[in-house]
Specification:
alpha+beta; FAD/NAD(P)-binding domain; eight-stranded mixed beta sheet; seven-stranded mixed beta sheet; 12 helices; globular; binds flavin-adenine dinucleotide; FAD/NAD(P)-binding domain-containing protein
Length: 496
Amino acid sequence: MSLPNTVDVLVVGGGPVGMAAACTILNNLPQESRASFKLLVVDRNISVHHIPQNQSRAIGLHARTFEVLAEFVDEPEVREKQTGIRGRESAPILQDAASVPDRVDSVTQSLLERGILLTKGGLRLSGRPKPILHMKMASALQDSQFQQICCIPQRVTEAVLRARLNALGANVEGGWTVVDIVKKGREGKVLVTLEHDKLGRHDVETDFVVGADGGHSAVRQLSGLAFPRQSMKEPMILADVKTADERWPFEYKTLGYEGVEGGDTFCKLGFGLLLPMPGNWLRVAANFLPPDFDPGLNHVRGPNSGGHVEGHGPTREQMQWVLDQYLPTDAEWMEGGSGDRSKKPGEIVEMRWSTVFKIHHGIVRSYLEPETGRIALIGDAAHVHSPMGGRGLNNGIQDATSLGMTLVENLDSTQEARQTALQSWADERRKIGLMILNETNQQTVMATLKNPILQFLRNCLLRLLAFFPSVSREMIRNMTGITSRPEGWKPNLLNA
Ligand SMILES: Cc1cc2nc3c(=O)[nH]c(=O)nc-3n(C[C@H](O)[C@H](O)[C@H](O)COP(=O)(O)OP(=O)(O)OC[C@H]3O[C@@H](n4cnc5c(N)ncnc54)[C@H](O)[C@@H]3O)c2cc1C
């Protein structure tokens, strides 16, 4: 398709965050502007299905993300009829959860019926069956319609957002890379040059640019927005695996589990993560490496690495070694469990994806380009940080819906009023981004302690905190973004 020469909003990046921004704008345009408003979404990937089938990437969607998607992205009529899922242990998972129709009206409903709904999480110490901190979502999220963490592969989240974008009459124009940006001050529009392998160069003049082009954002670089960042010293590894007994560990009471949950386990070497995914897959991750593993970091730099520097993933055997360090996988621990005791229930029998990466943490100095006030950054383009708590993608989607609404609400405003609204959006989102960056940094430091004395002190502190349920309640509310609701926001619990 030939691209327009002039648009009202150009969204650069058709990842989850760019699509959420585009959906918010189109879904909330006033009736009288719908026919004339021009929005263009471009992505350098030629194919929209650029995340390989086996890769899950970000897998946990939080309560606040569902609240903003329900409020701003779902079709308003569907939203009114939607039934709440408060207190539900799980939604029925569709037979073929990975396949998504071409168009959807309710992003929230489509995601909820395709993901595993986690109602609890725990912090554990390896070798101790009882979690030191047990977190129950429903009691912490009383005032939200969405009281679960939805575990769903990013590929499926993207397919659902794409289907919503299609239903709103738009799509992602693939194969176009942003290569130049010319700013013309506050009054002039922004001129963006796109380049296509086969179709050559194309200039688009736009009133506003949404930079949602990931951790290595070209929009950020071309607009001269500073992005100080640091790299974590140690790499992390992760893998999606299946184990010999698909009920392991969640149905093994001797391991301290009473049903499906997710969380971190601290061990001598660092920490390990376990999260369930649809189809009996488990996400395992750790901040320590097997002894015989050379990650070859920096050899491969993923084109959409979102701030990660990737190397070669560990093998199934190496991942098994890692899992064995933080969670018992053998039969001795399975007292009370049923099944064949001669087998290791937690033995990894299949691994569809493994990777190793270094995490950067940083945040752009300003989410809004100050010279023109016509270029904003959202998602990984604005912030990258540790995956603790799985907050990156959630924060990005929340940036996207709030920016989309600020743009729509100021369509008819004077240039000055729009500037003021956008600046206050940018300040607010940066404040939240900075808070997440600091929190995830602190959590990473605590989780990756290597000194045995410091580990002991940390574990004592966690045990102490367990006596104060309000602490874990606050941790959940922070992690799920509920504490970042705008002042005065009222939840819609009508259908609860
Ligand atoms: C291997 C891996 C594992 C991860 N695991 C987790 C996890 O467990 N938990 C978690 O929270 N997060 C995880 N993340 C991070 C998560 O995937 C990102 O936070 C999320 O993708 C951010 O979405 P985004 O839309 O901002 O950016 P992206 O998903 O990076 O999308 C940016 C889009 O912009 C396009 N683009 C880039 N440059 C240009 C250009 N010049 N012109 C046009 N288009 C351009 C890209 O093609 C891409 O489609 C992981 C990331 C990776 C790579």
